[in-house]
Amino acid sequence: MVTSIEPVTAASARFQCETCELRSHSICSALQDEELREMNQVVRQVSLDAGQIVFFETDPADFSFNITSGVVRLSKMLADGRRQVTGFLYPSDFLGLAVGKDYTQTAEAITPVRMCRFDRKDLTRMYEKFPKLEHRLLEVACNEIVSAQDQMLLLGRKTARERLSSFLLNLLSRSNLGERLIGEIDLPMDRADIADYLGLTVETVSRTFTKLRKDGLIEMPSKNRIVIRDADDLADAAENPD
Amino acid sequence: MVTSIEPVTAASARFQCETCELRSHSICSALQDEELREMNQVVRQVSLDAGQIVFFETDPADFSFNITSGVVRLSKMLADGRRQVTGFLYPSDFLGLAVGKDYTQTAEAITPVRMCRFDRKDLTRMYEKFPKLEHRLLEVACNEIVSAQDQMLLLGRKTARERLSSFLLNLLSRSNLGERLIGEIDLPMDRADIADYLGLTVETVSRTFTKLRKDGLIEMPSKNRIVIRDADDLADAAENPD
DNA sequence: CTAGGGCTTTGATGCAGGTCAAGGCGAAAC
DNA sequence: GTTTCGCCTTGACCTGCATCAAAGCCCTAG
After folding, report:
1. Residue A81: which residues within 8 A CB-CB, separation 6 or more?
2. In this structure, are A94 and A183 located in the same domain?
3. Is A99:B143 a contact under the CB 8 Å cutoff?
4. How many angstroms is C1' of C23 away from CA of B173?
5. What is the pLDDT of residue A1?
6. For testing the chain A interface, which of B123, B127, B139, B157 should be mutated: the one with the most A CBs within 10 Å?
7. Which residues of chain A have pLDDT under 70?
């Protein structure tokens, strides 16, 4: 559950959005200064500690969020405890596209997280006023569909080695938004999260990390730190069984 | 490739949309009579034979479609031929949400198919004129995201038996749009399509059909015809390993 | 500095589903 | 009717990943 909800005064909030460095990446990029100011009227800053739930998969879907810092894990569970992680959200990612009455997955902070929270009713009013916003959101939704399809291919047809390689490459491109790809990435999630994201077990994930390391494709300065020696080689590994 | 593209005269087209029985299910439900008439100016009816490609996964994404009859299979391939079927589209389904320059998957008719084809440029103009249309499309996109997540859970964590049971239940609910669930469904796709959709092999799909039949969960009057004896029992099978 | 606990890795073994190989079966062609 | 051909099913065997079990490795608390 949400720990701290700090209402933002009109003045400070306005200031914040205008100077927000994520503005060009997030859905806010659809809005002009003037329009953004209006968004500010309905946004609240929210902070979560690592491990806290943003929402649970049957909660009424009252809010949407824009991650401003930290990482959020999305997942679905079966009654017997089997879990599928459906995604990891980073700063500038939008959370809560759901169209129905309730959320269909659980969102949990895996690091300390800050985000902008919107009441979905307010957001609906914003859509009507600024169709550009809805257009942008459709764009976001389409991108999500495309990655979901990639993930289906991964889960349905790829080997453990291909899965982990694909995953690392994804993280690499996301962690360097717009910049050139430097070869080092940080893993804020633990092995169980990775396993549940890739449809594997922790043991297989661990063994596969070891193999990639022994094959010289990656280095592991620490458990949560991966250096990619050659992104092209890893891209091969991501699409060739073995 | 598209075989027959029949331009529709303004008069006949107008008539068609107004009396289209799928109107309330498709994206057209967002539009009033007057607005729909305008959509008609930019739509073309397209017919395909079974087996024909609608578009290929690297083609420029110039068109979007509304299926009016038949079934379309969506899929992605790896270089070595492994294939993941990402979905089956039925009448009233929208095809071509892609946001990028190119399609990211292949669409192929698996039965004779008819659809309404839109030039994406025209569609963009329509969005601007009728924001309701874009709103509706966002709704469609969100639904697609939700099913994609269900499919990830299926591919990542379910057993063969659970996968096939889930699949049959999905078909059951889709093939009876809005009506009560009668227990019989038609399988327009072959075993290879099902296998590639569920992340299995044809052999496993076949064996699993046999098991479900022997367990009394389904009957198979013919290869492409399935009778669901008890939807609740099948729903159990869809979420319990074994 | 040492002990404890939670992650991660590694090893040994098992099994669900893949692979390989025959048959079956129904529809279309002749 | 009978041949053929493409799909589907079944059987025998194999394997990649899961499962079960036991160390290792931090990190934190005392």
Report:
1. none
2. no
3. yes
4. 36
5. 41
6. B157
7. 1-15, 176-182
